[in-house]
Please model this.
Amino acid sequence: MKLLLCLSIFFISSLPASYSCNSKDKNTLLQIKKHFNNTEFLSSWDPQTDCCTSWTGIECTNSRVTLFSMANYRTLYGQIPDQIGDLLELRTLEMSHMKLTGNIPRTITKLKHLVFIFLRWNKLSGPIPDYISELKSVTFLDISFNKFTGPIPGWLTQMPKLQTFQADNNSLTGPVPNSFGSFVGSVPNLFLKNNKLSGKIPESLSKMDFQAVVLKGNGFTGDGSMFFGGNKRTVQVDLSRNLFEFDLSKIKFGKSLAMLDLSHNRIFGKLPRELTQLRLERFNISYNRLCGKIPRGGQLQTFKSYEFAENRCLCGSPLKKAC
Model:
């Protein structure tokens, strides 16, 4: 029995190192902990334990750290540490709902395998760094609810795997870039609500088939019809609370459209009967300059009257005003 026990201990001790945390990654994480003044939020990051199996917010693949998640540490101040760029196999970076300041460090460009970036709900500021375009594997970039300024980066079109860009609730200014009329990869979802964006939407975007585009709460003007089309696979369009001005009567809608909010604009014309053929889940056209009878059928009469209210001369159900 003793021999068997000794052999078992020998076998366990001789297992390859790939079953435990890579020493370089571990040292990097300990430096990050020190950067945040050894905060109690990271008390599980004990140098005597395995970072892959017992450290909060850390996941590994083949002993290398592939997920780094610091979230909901709302009293934790500081900047994103430069050392984050030394976790060379990182796939997911999350530092959200904190009080991070400064900008995204250039060292992030060393993370060539990075796929997901979640930096929402912080106090990050300055222009969105152009060196993020070097991260060719990123599919999801979320920097919403920060204090970023400057223009929407035109270089987003050069990120071949980008599927979603979320920059809601910042202080971005200027127009949508002309370059958004051509992406090297798939056309990403765009979430840009509640910024300080303005100007007209480039006509070149009419060639793009966005699955979701949310421009709510900006100062865009002119035509917004290029986001629609009978052959498009768009699911969500939110152009609310802007200064868009176009004829809704002439719009053709793709059959996949499920969420449409055009409220608080200067849109005119009549409601197309095509709307009755859509499986709408959300719909709001209030506070525009629309006229005519609301078509009966589909989902239209299931929405509340206030979602049609304050137009020039709309009538019919669900409004109380008869035609």
In short: The first strand starts at residue 58 and ends at 61.
